[in-house]
Amino acid sequence: MKTLLLTGFVPFLDNPINPTEVIVKALDGQTLGHYQVVSRVLPVDFSESAVKLEQYMDEVEPDVVISLGLAAGRTKITPERIAINCRDGAADNQGVKLQDAPIAEDGPAGYFSTLPIRAFVDALNEANYPATISNTAGTYLCNNVMYAALRKIERDGTKIRAGFVHIPASHELAVQNPKLPSWSSRDLEEAIATIIKVLD
User: Fold this and answer.
1) Alpha helix stretches (DSSP H) within 139-181
2) Of the candidates 164, 144, 141, 149, the residue with the CA atom closest to the CA atom of residue 90
3) CATH of the domain at 143
4) What is the count of structural domains for the chain?
5) Residue of 21, 80, 86, 189 marked catalytic
6) Is 61 noted as a catalytic residue in this protein?
């Protein structure tokens, strides 16, 4: 049995909950396909999120890392193709706001996901969960942890596969914003389980 490290985030900005936290806690300990899921929740903190993720990778020693993030406003599940060496955007939960800041001064401009993102999208669409590949993970915390995971793998010389998947808002978030596209928590959880089962 292989091990999959699945991460989500705590709530951030004006969101009272983060559906990624709900999903990873629900799937923690489950066996899905060839993988035992080990879940962890990351802080919304430009510095600590990457540090914690690297610690969890050392602790869990996973074969695969999938990090989840909320992309409120998107209507589909969107596996990310690339992470870029940039931190920019709204303040994190510590009030830190960065602009045009590199994640790693000596790091490459970007890292491509090593997950089978096309297979993820095909499996999701076949199961009637709308999905498409995204070519931008943004420059906030989601991009930050995707870049950090792939950089650590390169630095350590391991064969861990890693990447990032953005999810739409859950219905619970849409209660406060009726115009926000949303999915049920059940569908979000089952969609993430579907992509895990794609992995060999």
Assistant:
1) 141-156, 171-174
2) 141
3) 3.40.630.20
4) 1
5) 80
6) no
CA angle centred on 135, ends 42 and 105, rounded to 5°? 60
Q: Enter the tokens of residue 139.
A: 């420059």
Type of residue found at 114 = T
- DSSP state, 183? E
pLDDT at residue 178 tops 90 = no
Cβ–Cβ < 8 Å for 19, 188: yes
Q: What angle do helix axes 185-198 and 117-126 make, rounded to 10 degrees?
A: 130
Catalytic residue (choose from 21, 86, 142, 189): 142
Containing domain of residue 49, as a range? 2-198
| pTM score above 0.90 | yes
Please say if 80 is a catalytic residue. Answer: yes
| Catalytic-labelled residue, pool 21, 86, 166, 189 | 166
Token pair, residue 198, equals: 């794609």
> Which amino acid type is present at position 161?
R
Tokens of 32: 């899905």
What pLDDT, in 10s, does the model give residues 117-170?
Answer: 999 999 999 999 999 999 999 999 999 999 999 999 999 999 999 999 999 999
